[in-house]
Amino acid sequence: MKPIEKKFKDIPTAEKVATFVGWLEEKKGRDVLALDLAGMNAFAESIIIVTAGSVRHAQGPADHVLGMCDDEKIEFLRMEGYQAGQWILLDCNDVIINVFQPPVREMFRLESLWSDAPVLHDGRELAPPVEAATTSAGTHSGVRRMAGKVAGARAAAVTAKRAATSSADADAEEPKPRARSRKPAAPKTPEGDDQ
């Protein structure tokens, strides 16, 4: 009987995290922070948080990690937030990667949710102290509340942009009045004149 070939590599989480950190830094990810969540009753063994400078910059590391996972046979479950590029979440089963734009990372401050977690990698230039969350339930509801506010603000901005664009398009499509040239009226001839 032929042995069953595994679809994905079976590598330790710490090695996987080191690999992901290398890939993210290779694509110029900034302020990379990796936390060990093992034994903390969390949804993953590890979390990686990284900052990107623009939407395109955020999509680059996400694409790179996806491609390298495929090449290296590392399990990759899904990606969320790619189009908006403000917060791209990569679910690699036991490792979750979060690629943030700077204001979004500062607003959500995921580091503070797991302040007691051992640090596997800290590439932050000015590593701020990781603040302890008051309660995990309060913090998670705060994150959900902020996510709702961000989504609402984003929807309002998109609506305003669409309204401005459609207004500009309507102005552009509105026919401009043409200058009419008047032909001089043909002289009327009195009835009965034969010319």
Per CATH, which architecture of the domain at 13-131?
2-Layer Sandwich
Biggest sheet strand order reads 3-4-5-2-1-6
Shape: extended
Given the structure, what is the number of helices?
Answer: 4
Structural class: alpha+beta
Low-confidence stretches: 129-161
Examine the coordinates and then state which fold CATH places here, giving the name of the CATH topology of the domain at 13-131: Beta Polymerase, domain 2
Helix content, binned percent: 25-40%
Query: CATH H-level name of the domain at 13-131... which superfamily?
Result: Beta Polymerase, domain 2
Strand content: 15-25%
DSSP strand tally: 6
CATH C-level of the domain at 13-131: Alpha Beta
Which sequence of SSEs, written as H and E, runs from N to C? HEEHEEEHEH
Terminus-to-terminus distance? 114 Å
Keywords: Cytoplasm, Repressor, Translation regulation
Subcellular location: Cytoplasm
Family: Belongs to the Iojap/RsfS family.
InterPro entries: Iojap/RsfS/C7orf30 (IPR004394), NT_sf (IPR043519)
